[in-house]
Batch of 2 targets.
Target 1
Amino acid sequence: MVYDPDDPATDATARAMFEEQIGWAVEEGVDYIVCETISHLGEAKIAIDVCNRAGLPLVLGFAIHRSGRLRDFDGSLAEACRICLDEGAHLVGFNCHRGPATMLPLLREAAEEVDPARLCTWAVAYRTTALQPAFGALVDNAMPFPEALPGGLSFPVGLDPFQCTRYEMGDFARQCHELGVRYFGGCCGTGPHHVRAMAEAIGRTPAASRYSPDMSKHYALGTDERLLRHNRDYVPHFTAEPTRPG
Ligand SMILES: [Zn+2]
């Protein structure tokens, strides 16, 4: 965050910070480094260089705000990904700020320029949209007392109504996988149930699948013959006639 492309002195400051953090990681014997939420290509290049010198593979995530661009680079994001791979990043892609709906288009565009197997992503688990592509811009029109939101913004602590379901995050994983991306996950707002659903969506059965809900045992919606008949018969009273507006 100290990096400022208009102030060359910050190159050395950012480099020193990367060297310090990556140095600790090297001492502890890590397998690779994840450098995330980077918005400047110049800063990414410094991180790549420090990792190269440390002999560690780097997974690099760019954070793309509403503009859809990096803060110091006029070229496309796909081009920026290509540059980072050429400089020595092991994987490059996008993390944070965008939920599945507005993250996938970035990946699709980048996949036309670089091998999708060299792309990575971890999206926020929020319903970002074409009009509000980054979660900092989400506006909660249903909030009954919006004055309670700091600065009138749902970001970062009033985002609950925009939360993706496990099914949406699972679908995100499936689409990443189909695209050929092999390193994907969740960023802000992601819970363990999302991660489990993402693994299951691509055919995996992680240890946590043991706790995936078995709806056949639900007291009223389930199908298990041992469930009480009067509860199952009552189901139409709470599932019929949806009250969804419109
Ligand atoms: Zn995040």
Target 2
Amino acid sequence: MIAVISAIALQAAPVESCPVELVVLGVAQDGGIPQINVQDDPAWDDESLRHRVVSLGVIDHEAGKRYLFEATPDFREQVRDLNERAGTSGAPDAIFITHAHIGHYTGLMFLGFESMNADSVPVYVPPMMAFFLTESGPWSQLVEYENIEVRELLSERVEMEDGGRYVGSSRLTGHSSDRISVRAFAVPHRREFAATVGYQIEGPAKSAVFIPDIDSWEEWGLSIEDVVQENDIIYVDATFFDDNELPGRDMSAIPHPRVSETMDLFQDYPDEIRQRIRFIHYNHTNPIRYEDSEETREVLERGYRIAREGETICL
Ligand SMILES: [Zn+2]
Ligand SMILES: [Zn+2]
């Protein structure tokens, strides 16, 4: 973990040249890397092979504000990294959650009375998740003690776009600058406690899209090809590399577009389009977790990118 933290700290924050910056704070699937009960994972002994659970930070350097996408089980380290990078302290100015699976929201617990005891941090959540957080413990205590202020994206709807395909949108005015605009859109993904969304984050110069979990490109109301062409950077679900990844298991019933499938989809696009795609949310079984694997080489040679902790983009 030390290596990861210094990777972020070592890059000088280009405040003047980059007023709004995105920083990758985690890249792994919900269970993290190494994953519990995988006793022989080399990352237990070699910390440089570890990866934190998927999360992005966005910093408005001019306003001194920072926003966190997902509240993961690695929330403590990720908030530290975000503050380090922003030169600030305290809880994020707002948190955006994609859905109610453990890797994406359970870090909220650290905002509570037993830990940080934060004061009314706005937490944007997909439809149905406000009910889940408000009505079930231990999350309801965060609401009751006003550690968090839950804002359901549907009720926050400011602009509907593209015939309603975006479920919600927030310009972040009121508690931030208007340099950053965040929109949520519906994403097909197992709905246990709430719906799932992805986010489009627009800064003064560039727009990034964040889709850490999706069941398939086909079931989606939007076209991934359009989204890639309309935005500058797209962080996409890379849970599994291909169907050979879980030996002895028929993977055809397991959702998530495979990395190999997404690469095939954009095979004939120009380099400039392909390099917008950055794979994120990789499972501990996905060989792209290793910098030096054959699969990592293949992804890079084909013109795609793999998201790594500490990577920054000027938005
Ligand atoms: Zn996930
Ligand atoms: Zn999920």
